[in-house]
Write a structure and sequence with these properties.
335 residues; six-stranded parallel beta sheet; alpha/beta; Rossmann fold; 2 domains; single chain; six-stranded mixed beta sheet
Length: 335
Amino acid sequence: MSEKWGLKLAAVGLAMGFFAGCGSNSQSDEEGTKSITLGLSYDSLESAWLVVNHAAVIEEAKKRGAEIISVMAEGDAAKQNVQIENLIARRVDAILCFPKDSSAIVKSIKQCRAAGVPIVMINRSVSGPILPDVQIVANNKAMAREVLNAFADIARREGKTYQVVLLVGNLSDENAVLRKAGHHEALAQNPDVFNLLAEVPTEWNLDTALKGLQNALQANPEANLIVTPSDYLWPPIRSVLEQQGRWAKIGEPDHFPVVSFDGDELGMQYLKDGYNWADAAQDAFLEARLAVEWAHKLIQDEAPPENIIFDEGQIVTTENFSEVAPAVWSYPLLR
């Protein structure tokens, strides 16, 4: 991570009141909160959202008087399971986890259950019979559907139709599965606007996305809309469009529309600048606060109302940018 990038992330944290200097543990001390230790296990910090969310979890925990033991799996699901086993051995009171793999993490969930240690999933959900104690996640399916529906409304008012290339994330990630499902629902709900030409598996890999998108646009020259399940994939999208002479702003002759997901700095910057039409923005700070809050509640044997507690996010478009964008976590990073 560059020094400039780090300073910008620090700035957004300061603006939102989560980094050091914006609060103290005095409230927790005055209330007599018992000191606890939380284990924090993240797959990686490969995106700005994860960097900000990870820092926000730590600061929220400190505000509540908790100690944090943080480990990083560096993209290795097996390593993450070993790290969580070690956290259990270190007798943490609860574990907060951004998992590498929605299936592989089940091993750790079972170990937490056996040890009586609550585990909270952050942002990436797990499905199936073995679930964590609570999951704090974006409402991926609904947000993916609604961001594309919002673009369909704009297209309909403008009398335009679109031939769609849909990028798909790694389907071992439940978020990718749900976003794909939401995009498909919107495509089916708006047949007068959308026609799906191709799906491009990306595996959340930038090189794979680049090659797949190149091939899809070459095979489908009539394509005129890219739908991406993550702002993480903007670099290959821009590269391919630049190669084709289609990297242009809205209103310019060679503009190629894109609809995105995440609310990361890059997607929001391109929305502000006129390259992106709409972005489904997750809330890095809300998910951090809820995760720490529920870790404390679970330690006190309070059960959540549902296994999944949703971050409903914000749908930001070219039409509502000035009203909605300032509430998005990455807004202070924009130029």
